[in-house]
Amino acid sequence: MAYEIVWTKRAAAGYENIIYYLETNWSDKEVSRFVVETNKFFENLILHPELLRKSAKHKDLHRGPINPLTILTYRIKPRKKQIELINIRSARQKPLP
Predict the structure, then answer these.
(1) Which helix (H) or strand (E) covers residue 62, if one does?
(2) I need a labelling partner for 21 at 20 to 30 A (CA). Which of 34, 36, 74, 79 fits?
């Protein structure tokens, strides 16, 4: 059975910041490509929740790249069949504490 993706406020804000950056500095084609790429990644994540590595510091979190420039942090909630997206950020940003 596939999992459901749940967005935290931080993850939604990070995704919106990336979209805003792309819209401001790149073409509509690049924005569209990013959205399609992330949607495909999330479709794969729903089917394979253990797709990314567990965090070394926080054993209940998974962290890794969506693409070379975007990092995702998430938590799996097996009882609820949910994947909680904690943070999405540009790989060029400093990680949050």
Answers:
(1) strand 61-67
(2) 74
Residue 50 maps to a domain:
yes
- Domain of residue 15 covers 7-90
Close Cβ partners of 38 (under 8 Å, ≥ 6 residues apart): 15, 66, 67, 70
How many separate domains does the chain show?
A: 1
**For residues 63, 84, 77 and 83, what is the CA-based torsion angle, rounded to 10 degrees?**
-80
Tell me the Ramachandran region of residue 81: left when phi exceeds 0, alpha when psi lies from -120 to 50, beta otherwise. left
> Is residue 95 in some structural domain?
no
Q: Write down the pTM of the prediction.
A: 0.88
CA atoms within 13 Å, Cβ hemisphere of 71: 16
Quick: pLDDT tens for 49-85: 999 999 888 888 999 999 999 999 999 999 999 999 9
User: Quick one: residue 75, left, alpha or beta (phi over 0 = left, psi -120 to 50 = alpha)?
Assistant: beta
- Residue 63's CATH number: 3.30.2310.20
